Amino acid sequence: MRWLPAFLLGCISLAPSTARAADPLSRTLRESYKGLKMFLVYSGDAMPEEYYSFKFAPTWRTFSDYLVHVAEANYISCSTLRMVAQPKVELSGTMSKSELMKWLKDSFDFCDPAFANATDAKLLTQITSGERTLYPVEEMIALTNSLSEHYGNVACYMRIKGVTPPSTLRTQRIMK
User: How far apart are CA 51 and CA 62, in angstroms?
Assistant: First the structure.
């Protein structure tokens, strides 16, 4: 019986805090989105403009085209999540780095409220957006998956051009 207090203390210390236990789905998606946003914005800022037109293979997108695609996906998905009209934005892979980075950052600013205001209950309540009926969680997962995929594309381009991707920089700082 002497083990019981130690066992209970161990269980209590391993139990999640109430703040962490609240809305685990929306919290996880929000944290994932924040990290991907940071990585993609940093990547665009870190890559020299001379490499924005670089493409790994003839059928692949250029580095700037990947950033354009991310910004467009942000506007499409987050207009659905926020149930507002999609902003009229004309993006092009031939924009200057500063123009493109402004639009990329603006697209994430447009998405921020959708993630900031998400709760598990809201994510699991069906909505209608245009002709689509869906659960917001579906759109959020699709967007964060897409952001993750395209960060992977962008990180490869950075490595090919000798620029260290932000996820590696973060790991190197933690490891030291």
Answer: 9
Q: How do the domains of the chain map onto residue ranges? A: 23-175
Instruction: State the Cα–Cα distance between residues 176 and 137, nearest whole angstrom.
Output: 37
At the topology level of CATH, where does 23-175 sit? Four Helix Bundle (Hemerythrin (Met), subunit A) (1.20.120)
pLDDT in tens, 2-58: 543 343 334 334 445 545 568 999 999 999 999 999 999 999 999 999 999 999 999
Do residues 67 and 35 touch, judged by C-beta distance below 8 A?
A: no
- The pLDDT score that the predictor gives to residue 174 is 58
Residue from 143, 153, 67, 146 nearest 106 by CA: 67
- The rounded distance, in Å, linking the Cα atoms of 128 and 87 is 18
